[in-house]
Amino acid sequence: MKVTKETNIGDLLDEDIETARFFFDIGMFCLGCPASRGETIEEACAVHGTDPDELVAKINEYFENKENKESK
Questions:
Q1: Helical H runs in 1-72?
Q2: What is the rounded distance in angstroms from the CA atom of residue 67 to the CA atom of residue 25?
Q3: CA triplet 61, 21, 32: central angle to 5 degrees?
Q4: Computed over its alpha carbons, how large is the radius of gyration of the chain?
Q5: Tens digits of per-residue pLDDT, 17-70?
């Protein structure tokens, strides 16, 4: 999965629940709330004062590493 700032948080969590930790790291503990699941990464970062590009890079790195491990 390729993640962008426009990626919906709910869709991302449905794809891989382990990505929740990246949101916990920015102080977003309300992932069970319907409103937060409907936000984009960019919207969540704006509310939590975090750089969306940095968060997207971390999540994409996670997926890349996961994919590399699975292909071995």
A1: 9-15, 20-25, 34-37, 41-48, 52-70
A2: 22
A3: 130
A4: 12
A5: 999 999 999 888 888 888 888 999 999 999 889 999 999 999 999 999 998 888
